[in-house]
Amino acid sequence: MTQVTQASFAAPLLDRSKPPPSGLRSWTGAEPVRRYGVYRNNVATGLARALAARFPVTEKIVGEDFFTAMARDYVLEHPPSSPVLLHYGNSFADFVAGFAPAASVPYLADIVRLEDAQVRAYHAADIASVDPQVLTRIAPERMAGLTFIFHPAASVLRSAYPVVTIWSMNSGEQPLTPIADWQAEDALVTRPELAVLTRRIAPGSTAFLLALMAGDGLAGAFGKALTVDETFDLGGNLADLLRSGAVIDILSEPPLEA
Amino acid sequence: MQLSHLPRQSGVGFKPEHFSAIREGRQPIGFFEVHAENYMGDGGPPHAHLRYIRENYALSLHGVGLSIGSMQPLDRDHLARLKSLCDRYEPESFSEHLAWSSHDTVFLNDLLPLPYTHETLDHIVEHVDQVQSTLNRQMLLENPATYLLFAESTIPETEFLAEIARRTGCGLLLDVNNVFVSATNHKLDAEAYLASFPLQHVGEIHLSGHAETIDEAGAPLLIDTHDKQVADPVWALYESVIARSGPVASLVEWDDNIPAWPVLRAEAQAAQAILDRARRPAAA
């Protein structure tokens, strides 16, 4: 009697050049090729739909058929390694960037990156943000050395395309119209309470936030922002940052409460 | 070991799309069921939803990724994640499938079939023992929807499930749609399958919709899709089960093409009407 091992059952699910294992049967007596195909389809389509749930705006831009075909290719090349699919598709943006049929939509990979950041924010740990008033209690001479601890939901995305505008128009946040002013846009993604927020930020703010996220002190981050935008408004940017809920702690040496 | 103890009422699979409608008032729902793997993130709305459900309703935690039917060892990390969810939310029930979904390092995201032999039986029994001792609770094991058979199988599915329950003390989750799907796909009599099902071990019933296709020989091939209303023959089988078993916690699953909340609620109420008829003493 033929023993169908799970290895021999699993391999052709992802590699369609392999025939189904022998040892399977159907009451009709026919080789159950189509029946095995149900499992093949469940695996590829199920995982492609899991990606569609994570990247709904990407799907809207290219259409369901195109997205599913692209996602199925990705799934067969990069199947998940964990039964927790909440973060499945970490490498999907790089795949999309190299996916030849999508070359006419050069901003698509950045939309994937933005949606990836939004899903990470959605599932990030629940941590209270700092009170925006905290800065008013810090002596001016200690400001330069402050470092900021960011909420796990917060991230910055840089794009050479108007990624925030395109995303907003396709997610229904603003009307779908031709983009007259086609230029690079950066995004700040946060989740101050339970709602994920996506905001367009200026290049100086991007440099400032990326420096703070990398652990630079306030003075160092300010310096980096000035190299990008010599009119960078430190006070306004700090106030915006604290209001965004992206900061969970501010550290100073010696400690602020001392 | 904590026994599975869902209320003997109808329930529905919780979908985040329905959260605001559910929160508008007390719903006529005996319990909600969630897929455990969707609540394995760190925080955010999923946990806020689950906290609300837990505080207001009975809760069933239904795993779809443990791969109990795997011939390889269980994923200990995943079992630990399930334990931490059980400890945090204290569900009335935890259930999983008689199926496998992972092989080596790949998660295949489908409930794959296994041959029913003494060898596979021993493996499953070992895995169910491991799950129950890790979680310190009784689990329910669900009968699968299958699309093909294994030449090497020697044990009927109902006997296989009964033996697992007998040897491990686990309960069973009877998916009546899966019974109808498998019986159609293998040209078996669904009533006969249910007559031999060990109903005394059933702690929950699942109901859902399926799709109709044909196989390579032109024979009917039903697919367990969870994307529409429960089919009439499945309701009829359900009613005959309830008439024999008395009321059992009964869940309507609807995971794709998700309808508006009132449509899903109406499906649960249709199940509740059948449960209520079984509760009433027979008319003279």
Quick tags:
heterodimer; A: 258 residues; mainly alpha; 2 domains; three-stranded antiparallel β-sheet; two-stranded antiparallel sheet; 44% helix; elongated; B: 284 residues; alpha/beta; TIM Barrel; eight-stranded parallel β-barrel; two-stranded antiparallel ribbon; 20% strand; globular
Question: What can you tell me about this protein's structure?
Answer:
The complex is a heterodimer of chains A (258) and B (284). Chain A is mainly alpha-helical. Chain A has two domains: 1-105, no CATH class; 126-258, no CATH class. In chain A, 44% of the residues lie in helices and 10% in strands. A three-stranded antiparallel β-sheet of chain A has the order 3-4-5. Chain A has a two-stranded antiparallel ribbon with strand order 2-6. In chain A, helix 2 (33-54) packs across helix 4 (64-77) and helix 3 (56-62) runs antiparallel to helix 6 (108-123). The longest helix of chain A is centred in the first third of the chain and has 22 residues, at 33-54. The radius of gyration of chain A is 24 Å and the shape is elongated. Chain A starts with 5 loop residues before the first helix and ends in a 7-residue tail after the last strand. Chain B is globular, with a radius of gyration of 18 Å. Chain B has an eight-stranded parallel barrel with strand order 1-2-3-4-7-9-10-13, surrounded by five helices. A two-stranded antiparallel sheet of chain B has the order 5-6. A two-stranded antiparallel ribbon of chain B has the order 11-12. In chain B, helix 3 (76-89) links the parallel strand 3 and strand 4 (93-97). At the A-B interface, helix 1, strand 1, helix 2 and helix 6 of A face helix 2, strand 5, strand 6 and strand 8 of B.
